[in-house]
What we know:
Oligomer: heterotrimer
Radius of gyration of chain A: 16 Å
Helix content of chain A: 55-70%
Subcellular location (chain A): Cell membrane
Protein name (chain A): Biotin transporter
Number of domains of chain B: 2
Family (chain A): Belongs to the BioY family.
Membrane topology (chain A): Multi-pass membrane protein
Low-confidence stretches of chain A: none
Order of helices and strands of chain B: HHHHHHHHH
Number of domains of chain A: 1
Transmembrane segments (chain A): 6-32, 53-72, 78-104, 116-139, 151-171
Mean pLDDT of chain B: 79
Amino acid sequence: MSTRDIVFVALFAALTAALGLFPPVTLPVIGVPITAQSMGPMLAGAIAGARRGAAALALFVVLVCAGLPLMAGGRGGLGIVMGPGGGFVLMWPVAAFVIGFLYERGLETLTAWKEALILVLGGVVLTYAVGIPWIAAVARVDLAKAAIGSAWFLPGDAVKVVLVVLVARAVRRAYPTLRPR
Amino acid sequence: MTPSIPGRSPLHRCPPGPKILALVAAGTALFALPRLDLALAVLGLTGWLYRLAGIPARLVLAQVRPLAWILAVLVLVQLALDGWQAGLLVAARLVALMLLAGLVTLTTRSSDLIEALQRGLAWLRPLGADPAKVGLAIALTLRFIPVLAAITAEVREAQRARGLERSLVALTVPVIVRMLKMSDDVAAAIDARSYDPDRAGD
Amino acid sequence: MIEIRHVGHAFGERAVLRDLTLDLTERRIAVVGGNGSGKSTFARLLNGLLVPTHGTVRVDGLDTRRDGKAVRRKVGFVFQNPDNQIVLPLVAEDLAFGLKNLGLPKDEIARRTDEALRRYDLLDLADHPAHLLSGGQKQLLALAGVLAMAPEVIVFDEPTTLLDLRNKRRIAQAIDGLSQRAIVVSHDLDFLAHFDRVLVFEDGRIVIDDRPSAALPAYVAMMS
């Protein structure tokens, strides 16, 4: 990694932390609070690419484990990873990698719909695929219940995917950072 | 940035590596052996360790509070399905783990923990992760968080002047673009100060 | 001595510097010019942060293209925005960053860090997070971090542009007080009045190269 890559990694780790500083928004009707933080892996993948994005989120998770209060609401420590939500958090680096990889692969032919699909795949499908069984294991509930509980966050995720598509497209025009694979 | 509380107890003096290993061991044991007596014993031991470290009860509660509603739901579900013992087991195990994890965090300075992590990551070297680079990235991240917060506040003010304060896109795009531009300068500044990414730091 | 021979630089298709040839030997050299005139690019060529697309830049005989690392040890660089230059979270840590990169022994690092902090009244703030410093203090920290590495020349890229009047003066005084040679890109003409030489940039060329008493009035006339 060049110096510039290291700086990028640190910036996106810091960005993910900064997203946790936004006050959570409570969705109307459903009433589930959503935080902007899970946009971190999506933005890192879509803007910094696979390698740097994954490294940024891995760094973020390591710092959280080290006890820095970087998770939304000023939480931190190994308890985050060991707790029920740990599966989601641990998947963030993987999500960033997959999103970045697919963005780089299709860079020349990206449409808003394709981008949304990539973000849903990496940022939602993949993270839930590990996050839900993790809840089931840690909390000893069966998979179906864990899945239903997690489904409350899907509308929030949909909003985030749309936001990231808009942001990533605008940033790419203003300051291109990715190279096609 | 350091959530740890100062102290001179044996727990504070213990280096971070063994503490983390002990935590991982406890976590594994609790899940491998789902027994109520074991969970309660670990919970009791954890309470004793908190006393040993001289951590006030207020902080103990603060460790568990984020879990409160999840715990409540879990215990209710387990009670309804499998009886009170299963509910108690789940609750005791979760609380014990969160408290133990919190204990490591509270009794270790984050700079020590980061240093231990940096050393602990040395085995990643064959995979291409250089501990010296990891160290620089960690330090840079801690440096950037307040800078990003300041940029965000500035941009938010500018957008408010234009009546765009409710648009997250109008806020995020300029923040990220400024951040990316800044990264060029920061990388140049690091190079200007004789940083050599190919020479592993000492 | 810095020797610049037939240097041109382009970012992609856009030429920013065109065929410059000159030697920089004076103790205080000012670089002025409008936005986009090429002066910042010029500054970055002097310590090898940028390598010219044409021609060569040599510092004491060292080519920035081949010996970038050695050149950067001789030529320090202070950026416009200290926030982009401060690398590590704590004041003393950041000061030591460059020294560690030089591979100096621990006690030497401690001695030089202490000296630099003392020089700019930052000693009490050694264990402070750098982001809590004022703008002027941050720029002093950036300067101290470069100075501690004992370069022979320091290049400043608009070091006072983001500062208020009082801090502009503090930085100007700090630059005046340097025993090293300094090359300063600035819009602050009063500060440059007692320099030894002024280079005026326009459209990638040096259009005026003279003593301040002649160059600065001509520059002002040119810009109005």
